[in-house]
Design brief:
The chain is an alpha/beta fold. It has helices spanning about 10-15, 20-30, 45-55, 75-85, 95-105, 110-115, 155-170, 190-200, 225-240, 250-265, 275-285, 300-310, 310-320, 325-335, 385-405; strands at about 5-10, 40, 60-65, 90, 120, 125, 135-140, 145-150, 180-185, 205-215, 215-225, 245, 265-270, 290-295, 340-345, 360-370, 370-380, 415-425.
């Protein structure tokens, strides 16, 4: 089955608007066992629209066209459809009456420009839009079944999920919806993952994919055979082991929150180069107050001493970016808050501030618990300021994950170089 998608609009084509609708529907259809064979972006140009409608009508089984159904002069999709099929535009009395009532409810009168949204190609079927004013429409032209949709994301998504996909499923041969398993990894590159997993004897029904979401890489396993999916999952888990952060669609912060709440643990943070990035990531998940007690952005040396009890002598002897200072930051955050864990990060994110001994990308981390304090000094190479901070965020949270699961905290992180580490028992 050939399904094609056409986005319309000068702003989409020029990149002024990111085409989130195309990405969303591709993913949504993929999860429903229906994949697109082609996607296009076309300008607000009548001849170009007529050409693409005619071309796809001869090749595809289904064509979904997004955008160009509004009241303005550059909304040309309905006119282009009519001209491509050689039929006139006619007033849909049903949609016209619907618009009159809709506008009357807000004490407005339907204008001539808005009435344009009720002029549709003769013979088409209305696809209802309960959210907005531009109705969709559908028709058969040559080989293809066409569906025209508005560009507003909320209207588009409602129309696709509630009407268009169900209509496609009814008109065409049913498909078995595959199950997609997502496994999030950290500390290994996409190329290294590809090499390692390609060597596995995965069941033939498994489709293996990867998606980079810096600084993590998601492994995707897709199959219609549940037994094969379970076997593939076991093989991947055995191969990657501690490199796997978690499974599923949620965030790493949500995963950690579940574990922290299950174990009844609490946490306090002390951040320097990450500047509150770790706290922001954690509190983005509702319910984080159940375990996150406090967070300190100790950017200056003075604040490190004042807020989380770092000895000024330690800073003088070892420098702010050191395992010793990070350890005292983590311990101070933990003790001051009376919590189970303290996490600290202090580093040089650049672009300036580095030295020969401690170049940009040098970051010190520490995790303090009631029984021990683990600290490490790492070098994160070849990254921008935001890139270094993003990697540091995940390293810090991965340290917490490893502590919670009883894993080795002195983990290797691909190209990240470990300069030193230590564990001090209490």
């Amino acid at each position: 089955m050939r399904i094609e998608f056409i986005s319309t609009g000068d702003e989409v084509l020029s990149g002024q608007i990111v085409d989130t609708n195309a990405a969303w529907i591709s993913q949504y259809f993929f999860h429903q066992g229906r994949e697109f064979t082609r996607r296009y972006t076309v300008a607000d140009d009548l001849e170009s629209l007529i050409d693409i409608i005619t071309e796809t009508s001869l090749r595809a089984d289904v064509v979904i066209i997004n955008g160009g159904l509004g009241p303005t002069s550059d909304d040309l999709s309905a006119e282009a459809a009519a001209k491509a099929m050689g039929v006139p535009l006619i007033l849909s009395q049903v949609w016209h009456d619907h618009l009159v009532v809709k506008y009357a409810k807000s004490n407005r009168t339907l204008s001539v420009s808005n009435e344009k949204q009720a002029w549709l190609p003769k013979g088409c079927e209305i696809v209802d839009n309960p959210v907005g004013t531009a109705c969709g429409f559908s028709f058969q032209f040559n080989r293809a079944r066409f569906y025209f949709t508005p560009g507003v994301p909320s209207e588009f998504k409602h129309m696709v999920t509630e009407q268009i996909l169900p209509d496609i499923q009814q008109r065409f041969t049913p498909v078995t919806i595959p199950t997609l398993l997502k496994i999030k990894t950290f500390g290994i590159s996409e190329s290294a993952l590809t090499e390692r997993l390609a060597a596995l004897s995965l069941p033939s029904s498994i489709t293996l994919g990867f998606r980079v979401d810096f600084p993590t890489v998601e492994v995707k396993l897709l199959s219609t055979v549940e037994a094969d999916l379970s076997r593939a999952r076991a093989l991947v888990n055995a191969e990657l082991g501690e490199l796997i952060l978690y499974e599923g669609d949620g965030s790493f912060a949500a995963y950690l929150q579940n574990v922290m709440l299950e174990k009844g643990h609490t946490l306090s943070l002390a951040e320097s180069c990450t500047g509150g990035l770790i706290a922001s990531e954690l509190i983005a998940v509702a319910g984080s107050s159940g375990y996150l007690d406090s967070s300190h952005v100790t950017y200056s040396n003075e604040s490190k001493s004042r807020l989380v009890n770092v000895d000024k002598t330690t800073i003088t002897q070892h420098g702010a970016v050191s395992m010793e200072v990070a350890a005292e930051m983590a311990e101070g955050a933990m003790l001051n808050a009376g919590v189970d864990f303290g996490i600290a990060v202090s580093g040089i994110a650049g672009p300036g501030g580095g030295s020969e001994d401690k170049p940009v990308g040098t970051v010190a981390f520490a995790l303090a618990s009631k029984t021990h304090t683990y600290s490490q000094l790492l070098f994160i190479p070849r990254r921008s300021r935001q890139g270094i901070r993003g990697v540091a965020l995940y390293i810090a949270l991965d340290m917490l994950r490893r502590e919670l699961l009883g894993l080795d905290l002195s983990a290797e992180f691909g190209s990240i170089e470990r300069r030193d580490y230590r564990i001090v028992d209490k």
